[in-house]
Amino acid sequence: xxxxxxxxxxxxxxxxxxxxxxxxGMVLAIVGxxxxxxxxxxxxxxxxxxxxxxxxxxxxxxxxxxMRTAPKGQGAETTSVPYELGIRVxxxxxxxxxxxxxxxxxxxxxxxxxxMSHVKSVRVTGDKRSHWVxxxxxxxxxxxxxVIHNEIENELIAWRTLPGSTVDHAGSVxxxxxxxxxxxxxxxxxxxxxxxxxxxxxxxxLWGEEPTQQIEDDLWRLKEHLEAGxxxxxxxxxx
Length: 239
Known about the structure:
CATH superfamily of the largest domain: START domain
Largest sheet: 8 strands, antiparallel
CATH topology of the largest domain: Alpha-D-Glucose-1,6-Bisphosphate, Chain A, domain 4
Distance between the termini: 17 Å
Strand content: 25-35%
Structural class: alpha+beta
Strand order of the largest sheet: 1-2-8-7-6-5-4-3
Helix content: 25-40%
Number of domains: 2
CATH architecture of the largest domain: 2-Layer Sandwich
Order of helices and strands: EHHHEHEEEEEEHH
Number of helices: 6
């Protein structure tokens, strides 16, 4: 699991907030410099951070909470998770089945609950659109609507959640011929912004909901299902 942090472009507050941060930071810094006390030192520190916040446009607090007040900007209509936010997971596996067969199985979204242990159901609701119900920590469920926004037959399926989803996420799965020409490499690239941001992701890990391990286990179940024609059940694989 990788925490996404792109400081160079991570502007996550609005222009108005930046102006107020600079103005407030200057006032606190000036007052702090004129006095000599513990309180004035604290004002100086806060003022300096507000100046940094205004100049860079980046709030560490909003980043930690997985939030932003700035617009997503270019590409917002096809972006569920701004690239500087959230958690990223990359995993791949080799499956000893033809690429077209593996692609066809995944493309039928109703098959996903057969190997994704946390996915309770996927219902196709329209052209490339679907409704997902997924198990969450503490015996809860979350739901969202998603759309496949990029598809190349036998090669790529890319999706993103639609506005109003409980969990904003986007991802893609690539299908490539393995070097030996007999197997298929399946690579999943997933980025999501859990409720509560980094804090939410940390809490989820405490509940045993570690996304990297989830994806890895799901891919192994997919491999076992397609190669053997049966699910592995609760058998523990060797790591």
